[in-house]
Structure formats: C-alpha cells, structure tokens
C-alpha cells in the first residue's frame, strides 16, 4: 500500500490559533430582571423632585416681578410679560400711586422711561424696570435714604394688579330715542310691535287669516262664554 504523507503543521501557528479562538470568560454577572414596582417608585420620586424644584423656582418669583408681569400683559393678548410698553408703565405708576402729583408727575414718569429704555427700543425689561423705579424713588421719597426709598417704592407696587375701569355708560341721544320709540312708528312698522313695544314676530310681518269667527276689529272677542255663564 502506498504511504500517505501529510505535511507537518507548525506547532507555533496552531498555538496562536488556539489563543485567538479562545475568548476570555465574561466575569460580569448577568443583570437580574428589573422589578417593575421599583422602577415605578423611582420614576415617581424623580417626578416629585422635579415638580418640587419647579415649585421652588415659581416661589422665587418676587411680588414685584409678579406685578410687573401683570401690568406688562394688560391690554395686549400677544404680550409675554417679559417686557413692558410705555403706556403700561404709566398705568402702573398711576394705579400704584407712584405718581403723587407733587414729587412725581406723569412727566417725570415719561422722562425716566425714555432714559432707561434703549434708543431703538419701545419697551423695558424687568431689570430696566427696577432701574426706573430707583430713579423715581429719589424723587418720591426725598426724605429717606436711597435704600429705604427703593424699598418704599417697591412696597407701593408689590402684589398689585391693573385697575380695570368700569364700563362707559351710553349717552342718551334724542335722535336715537326717537328712532327706537315703537310708539311713534307708523305704517307697516307699527304693526310689528304691540303697545308695550314687544315684537309680534311672524304676526307682525305677514297677514294671517283670522279664523276665530269674529269680524276684524271686534273688541269683545272671546267674552261670549263668560257672559253666558254670568247670566246663569
């Protein structure tokens, strides 16, 4: 029989192949399945902590800034409350009695607003608002120190809101009264209303056929049964 010869394999190459094929064992233990109850509790705690943080941020909003925002959005549905127009600034000074007519006038308020705002801007921010109040406090409370004057003028504004004026009453006009007085209507317009001024509805717009059996204009319609019963 013929001898079969096989080529010798390099022992070093075989050793390298074994080391490459052999992977190190993963010593990290497998993660245990998460507990749904614990996950929900963790999420709830995280949500509560975020909510408490937001509440703290809202609480930090000072009464002065709250008043600023209320006046800033007054009369303007598109306002964000972060900037204030000159008209609302003047209203704030009037409603909060910053303007006293002696030390501080409406002219002083307008001058300070023009001084504080930017040249190309028509509004002021909250920081500029505080600067404007500081300028007015020097005039409004002359007898107090700068710090005390600022505190006093802040007290006038803190927690306040715009004063909404009452609805303007309509002025009675003789012309309007004559046009709306139904007792003076003539022709077909007169037929549309009863003596009290109430509209007759369809009966006042169309000629309805009277099927009562009485002649038109009879004043004692519907009194026959009453008279018969009274005679008995």
Automatic annotation (TrEMBL):
The protein here is known as: Tubulin polymerization-promoting protein
Q: Which Pfam families match?
A: p25-alpha
Checking InterPro entries in the record gives: Cyt_c-like_dom, EF-hand-dom_pair, TPP/p25
Any single Gene Ontology cellular-component annotation: microtubule
The UniProt similarity line reads: Belongs to the TPPP family.
Keywords for the protein's UniProt record, in alphabetical order: Cytoplasm, Heme, Iron, Metal-binding
One GO process term, biological-process aspect: microtubule bundle formation
Domain spans labelled Cytochrome c:
76-161
Which region ranges are annotated with the description Disordered? Answer: 1-52, 179-232
The subcellular location is: Cytoplasm
Stretches with biased composition (Basic and acidic residues) = 36-46, 188-208, 222-232
- The primary site where this protein sits is cytoplasm
Q: Name one GO molecular function term.
A: tubulin binding
């Amino acid at each position: 029989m013929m001898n079969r010869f096989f080529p010798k394999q390099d022992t070093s190459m075989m050793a390298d192949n074994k080391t490459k094929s052999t992977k190190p064992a993963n010593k990290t233990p497998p993660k245990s399945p998460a507990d749904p109850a614990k996950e929900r509790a963790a999420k709830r705690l995280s949500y509560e902590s975020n909510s408490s943080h937001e509440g703290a941020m809202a609480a930090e909003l000072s009464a002065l800034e709250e008043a600023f925002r209320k006046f800033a959005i007054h009369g303007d549905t598109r306002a964000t409350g972060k900037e204030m127009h000159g008209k609302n600034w003047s209203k704030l000074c009037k409603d909060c009695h910053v303007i006293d007519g002696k030390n501080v006038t409406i002219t002083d308020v307008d001058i300070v607003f023009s001084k504080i705002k930017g040249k190309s801007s028509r509004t002021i921010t909250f920081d500029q608002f505080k600067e404007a109040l500081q300028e007015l406090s020097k005039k409004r409370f002359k007898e107090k120190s700068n710090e005390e004057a600022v505190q006093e003028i802040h007290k006038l504004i803190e927690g306040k809101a715009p004063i909404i004026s009452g609805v303007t009453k309509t002025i009675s006009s003789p012309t309007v009264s004559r046009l709306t007085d139904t007792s003076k209507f003539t022709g077909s317009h007169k037929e549309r209303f009863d003596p009290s001024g109430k509209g007759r509805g369809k009966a006042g717009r169309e000629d309805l056929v009277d099927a009562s059996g009485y002649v038109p204009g009879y004043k004692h319609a519907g009194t026959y049964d009453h008279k018969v019963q009274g005679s008995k």
